[in-house]
Structure formats: C-alpha cells, structure tokens
Automatic annotation (TrEMBL), chain B:
<dbReference type="InterPro" id="IPR051789">
    <property type="entry name" value="Bact_Polyamine_Transport"/>
</dbReference>
<dbReference type="InterPro" id="IPR035906">
    <property type="entry name" value="MetI-like_sf"/>
</dbReference>
<feature type="transmembrane region" description="Helical">
    <location>
        <begin position="101"/>
        <end position="123"/>
    </location>
</feature>
<keyword id="KW-0472">Membrane</keyword>
<comment type="similarity">
    <text>Belongs to the binding-protein-dependent transport system permease family. CysTW subfamily.</text>
</comment>
<feature type="domain" description="ABC transmembrane type-1">
    <location>
        <begin position="63"/>
        <end position="251"/>
    </location>
</feature>
<feature type="transmembrane region" description="Helical">
    <location>
        <begin position="135"/>
        <end position="156"/>
    </location>
</feature>
<feature type="transmembrane region" description="Helical">
    <location>
        <begin position="233"/>
        <end position="252"/>
    </location>
</feature>
<keyword id="KW-1133">Transmembrane helix</keyword>
<dbReference type="InterPro" id="IPR000515">
    <property type="entry name" value="MetI-like"/>
</dbReference>
<protein>
    <submittedName>
        <fullName>ABC transporter permease</fullName>
    </submittedName>
</protein>
<keyword id="KW-1003">Cell membrane</keyword>
<dbReference type="Pfam" id="PF00528">
    <property type="entry name" value="BPD_transp_1"/>
</dbReference>
<keyword id="KW-0813">Transport</keyword>
<feature type="transmembrane region" description="Helical">
    <location>
        <begin position="12"/>
        <end position="33"/>
    </location>
</feature>
<keyword id="KW-0812">Transmembrane</keyword>
<feature type="transmembrane region" description="Helical">
    <location>
        <begin position="67"/>
        <end position="89"/>
    </location>
</feature>
Length: 347, 261
C-alpha cells in the first residue's frame, strides 16, 4: 500500500497535449476517481501512473519514491482493464495466479493465495473454468482478483464498470467498495460516469482537455464547483444568473433571485435540480429565491420525477420525489423556489 | 423450383471441381500399383514400382535432400517470420508501412524472375549454385508467407492482454512466451506448413540454384520425365501425397485454424 502523487505531469502526442501540467495527490488507502469527458486525458493519466506511458515532464511518485524511470512490470501495480483482458487460454485459477507465477511464488502459496483472492470476489467454485464460460460480471470479478492477488501497492481501474448493464453495475459498485475497504489498497479509477465517481470515491479529480480542473472530496466538488464546466458536468446545474460582462451578475431582471453576499462579481449562480421546489402559487416563506415559469414537461421515473420548466429565456430542470410534486399538469404556470443557501456560486 | 435447380447445379459444380482436382491424382496413384509400364489395362496389381523405387538411390537421395532442405527452410523461415510478425504487431517505427507493403511482391513476382535474379545475385556475391543457395532462396521465398499467415492470426489478438501481463509483473520475454505465443500458435503451425510446402514443392528456384547431381526431388522428377517416364515417379508421388494429406489432416485437427481456442 502506498500513496501516489502526480506532480506537474505533461504528456504530448505529437502536437496534441493529452496532459497539461497535471498534479494530484492520492493519499494511502483512499479510493479515487478520475472523471472527465472522453478525450479529457483521464485514461492517459491512469496509463502514465501505470507506466504504459512516460511523462514528457513532471514526476510521479508511488510510496514516496519516483517511478519515472521504472517500467510497468516493476511498478508493483494491479490494473483492471475495461475489457477485463483475461487470458483466454488459461483457466480462471491460472489467470489469477499469473502474477504469482511470474514472481516465482511456491506452488503451495500460489494455490493458497489464488483461493483467497477468488474467495474475496466470491468465485471460489469457478477456478477450473475458462474465461469464455463466465458471465460479464464474473469475468470482472476474476480481473479484480487477478489484479489484487499480488498485493500491489496501487490498484488502477480503467472504466471498470462500463461494460456491465445498469443493475449489475450498481451491485459491482457496492462490491468494489467492499473489497477496496477490506484490503485497504490505494485505488484510482477512471470513469466518465459522474454518478459512479460520486458514489465510489473519497476524492474526485475532474479533467478537461488535459488539465486538472478541480480535485477534492465528492461532496465538496459537487457543492462548490470551481467553474461552470464542473458544475454542469458533475450532476446537473441550472444556471440562474450569469455575469453580464461588466463584472455584475445579471439575474435576468428577476429580483426574486437573491445574490449571496460577496457574490456580486461571481461569473455565475447555479442551483441543483434537486434543490428546487415546485408550487402552483407563489411561496411566501422568507429567504427563498424564486422564479415564475411554465411547466413544459413532467417525466415520471419511478422513485423520482423530473420537471422541465421554462422561465423566460431560461430552462430549468427540477428533480424531486414524485410524491413531492403537486398535482400539476403540463402547460400550467408555476413557481420554482429554493433556499438561498442552496445557491451555488461559481467564482 | 429455381431454388432446387440452383442447389442441384451447385452440387454438380462442386463435384466437377473435386473431380478435376482429384481425378488425375487418383489415376496416378492407381497406376503406381499397376504392373504395366505403359498404363495398359486391365489393371494388374503389383508393388514392383515401389520395389524399384526402394533401390533407386538417385530418387531417394533427392527426396532426402528435399525433405532436409524443407525442414531447414521451415524452421528458419518460421522463426524469422514469426519474430517479424510480432515486431510489426507490437511496435510503431519509421518505414513500417513500406516494409509491410514490400512483403507482398515476392509472393506475386513470377518465380522464374525471382529465380533468375537469385542466380545472378548468388554468382555476383561468389556463393554460386549449391544447397546453401537453395536454402537461402527458399527461406527468402517462404518468409512472406509465414508473416502473412501469422500476422492474420495476430490481428485477432487483443493487445491489452500484453498490457495486463506486464501490469502483473511479466517482462517482455514472459509476455511473449506465456500470452502472445499461445494465441498465435495456430498461425505459426499454418505458417510453418506453408513454408514447408513452398520449399518442398519448389521447382523453379531449386532448378536454377541447385547443382547437377545435387538436385531436389521436383527437379529430379522433371529431369527424369524428360529422359523417359517410369512409374517409379508415380510411386514416389503417391507416397508424398499420402504423407502430406496425413500431415495436413493432423495439423487441421490440432490447430483448429483461425478458430477460437
């Protein structure tokens, strides 16, 4: 187990800058997400940490030692690939034991550790099968067992759950978190799924166009995005006010939107869809920001309902438990309101 | 109606192909067991041509030489060709495209021209004619076949398997031996069979490069046909065909060409 630290890493492919002066700390034993749209450099960063790529400048440390000159096979990492990359010609047990055989572990110990790893991922009975005889979820567990059986210092996961269907994905999130917790290994995973990043990680790094835009605990990044991109990428955000270009916030002539103290010169104000309340009449409570608009669409999705509301030139998205949405129909005039404390100030 | 007709025509077509492919071979094999030297019927079973063959040291020497040359060619061409395929698969380097394109002309250029060029070249460098020249010529001809076949198999190989093996601590040699190699073995076997066939069947290059009295089997067969045909040739041909059929069947059985393993 070890902490990982990425310091001012830049990586170019020809003229294309895949990583631009990226820095991030990954403390020992944590679960970290690298999040970004495709082409943001998140996979490049993971592959540079793994050692498949070498940084043009900057430095990567694993456990306080620079690994800049150390090739993949000597970095003591465990990696899980998007397509699992199980060796098709080997049984499950042989797949899991590959890293142990490479390390010339005695066959008794090899057998014991394969058994432990398979038990950890709850596949003890499938050791004799071949990868093609397993389901997607099972293959993924095997890939995980294979990655951790060598007791690596860091576990790297490249889009680990993207190949699974939705219900299996949620199960595997829980499972992944449990296993990570059980063995306490520093884990870094790449994802483009913001919900997955929020659910699993202790700390998120958000990348865009090769730059690390923001990093921090999920809740803090979600509640205090540093820019509009992060606000809109990590969850949904209704932009309620924008800077008018003269250094003043323009609340679109809507004085019922309260500008938080000290936020007059911010670039924008936003509010999350789940912070909004909807009502047919104007809410009278103190300390609310509110806007008047027309309910355009109401979408029922089981536990939650999503409402699309048109307020002047702005389109708002609201999410609430279906039972909390009053009996309103599409086309009605309504009010949206939120506690002013819920207003997100984008600096 | 027309469907049935088409099916029947298709079957007829297939039968004709098989007939024209195999009838001459069957006739030859049949005649190798016929006592008459002039293909006279009625058929009279006899093993005398095989007995004569067993005493014909010229043919047996040529056959031994051909097999030896083919084995050496197969080993050298398969090793070099496989290594080249893996390198072409794994690395990006300057001139890679050019190199890949340049692999195909040797397959397409008429052997007569390649043979002439090789003859001039080997005299030019002072090696002249002889078994070493024949082997070098055969290897040069066989390598592109091996590369094409092995590369086709490698194209179905998932390169992340190599990355996975490296992340588990395997060095380049272990990755090749334990992960890449098992996947391409069917391709290597197929490539080796091609190399063997290219060498063993090779007439033109061998004819140009071998010394008189040192000729390979195809060359000897050709020269003896010119002198006057004997059914011993039928006998040796029948043996060769039987052996290669069996080898092909075994290879197909164990390598499962192109399929999943």
């Amino acid at each position: 187990m070890a902490e990982v630290s990425v310091k001012n890493v830049t990586k170019k492919f020809g003229n294309f800058t895949a990583l631009d002066d990226v820095s991030m700390e990954f403390p020992d034993g944590g679960f970290f997400a690298l999040l970004g749209p495709s082409g943001s450099g998140k996979s490049t960063l993971l592959r540079t940490i793994a050692g498949f790529l070498f940084a043009d400048s900057g430095s990567i440390h694993i456990g306080n030692k620079s690994v800049d000159l150390i090739p993949v096979e000597k970095r003591e990492i465990g990696m899980m690939f998007q397509n699992y990359a199980l060796f098709p010609n080997m049984t499950i047990a042989d797949n899991v034991g590959f890293g142990l055989r490479v390390r010339k572990v005695s066959s008794d110990e090899e057998r014991r550790r394969i058994g432990e790893a398979l038990e950890l991922v709850q596949l003890s009975t499938l050791g004799d099968r071949k990868p093609h005889q397993l389901s997607g979820g099972q293959r993924q567990r095997v890939a995980l067992a294979r990655a951790i059986v060598t007791n690596p210092r860091v576990l790297l996961l490249d889009e680990p759950l993207s190949a699974l269907d939705k219900s299996l994905r949620v199960d595997m999130q829980v499972e992944l978190k449990r296993i990570q917790h059980e063995i306490g290994i520093t884990t870094i995973f790449v994802t483009h799924d913001q919900e997955e990043a929020l659910t699993l990680s202790d700390k998120i790094g958000i990348l865009r166009e090769g730059r690390m835009i923001q990093s921090g605990p999920p809740r803090s990044v979600y509640n205090n995005p540093v820019d509009r991109f992060t606000a809109e990428f990590l969850g949904d955000a209704n932009i309620v006010a924008e800077n008018d270009g003269n250094g003043r916030l323009n609340v679109s002539g809507n004085p019922s939107i309260k500008i938080p103290e000290g936020a007059e010169t911010a670039s924008a104000l936003a509010v999350r869809p789940e912070s909004l309340s909807i009502s047919a009449t104007e809410p009278e409570q103190e300390g609310l920001s509110k806007v008047h608009g027309r309910l355009v669409q109401r979408m029922f999705a089981g536990a939650m309902s999503t409402c699309i509301v048109q307020c002047g030139s702005h389109t708002y998205k609201m999410v609430a438990r279906d039972q909390d949405v009053p009996n309103l129909s599409e086309g009605e005039n309504i009010w949206l309101s939120w506690k002013s404390a819920q207003t997100i100030v984008i600096p | 109606m027309s469907g049935v007709l088409l099916t029947r025509l298709g079957k007829l077509w297939l039968l004709s192909i098989l007939f024209f492919l195999y009838a001459p071979i069957l006739v030859m094999a049949f005649m190798s067991f016929n006592a008459s030297q002039y293909y006279q019927l009625p058929f009279e079973f006899s093993l005398k041509w095989y007995e004569k063959l067993a005493l014909n040291t010229e043919i047996l020497d040529a056959a031994t030489r051909s097999i030896a040359i083919a084995i050496v060619t197969t080993v050298v061409a398969t090793v070099l060709g496989t290594a080249a395929s893996v390198a072409l698969f794994r690395f990006e380097f300057r001139g890679k495209r050019f190199l890949q394109v340049m692999l195909f002309p040797p397959i397409a250029i008429p052997w007569l021209i390649t043979g002439t060029a090789m003859l001039i070249f080997f005299f030019g460098i002072g090696l002249g004619r002889g078994t070493p020249s024949v082997i070098i010529g055969h290897v040069a001809l066989a390598i592109p076949y091996v590369i094409v076949v092995v590369s086709a198999r490698l194209a179905t190989f998932d390169a992340t398997l190599e990355e996975a093996a490296r992340s588990l601590g395997a060095n380049a040699w272990t990755v090749t031996r334990r992960v890449t190699f098992p996947w391409i073995v069917p391709g290597i076997i197929a490539g080796a069979l091609f190399a063997f066939a290219v060498s063993f069947d090779q007439f033109v290059i061998s004819y140009f490069l071998s010394e008189p009295g040192d000729s390979t089997l195809p060359v000897l067969i050709y020269t003896s046909i010119r002198k006057g045909f004997t059914p011993e040739i039928n006998a040796i041909s029948t043996i060769i065909i039987s052996v290669s059929m069996v080898v092909m069947l075994i290879a197909a059985r164990f390598s499962n060409f192109g399929g999943e393993r």
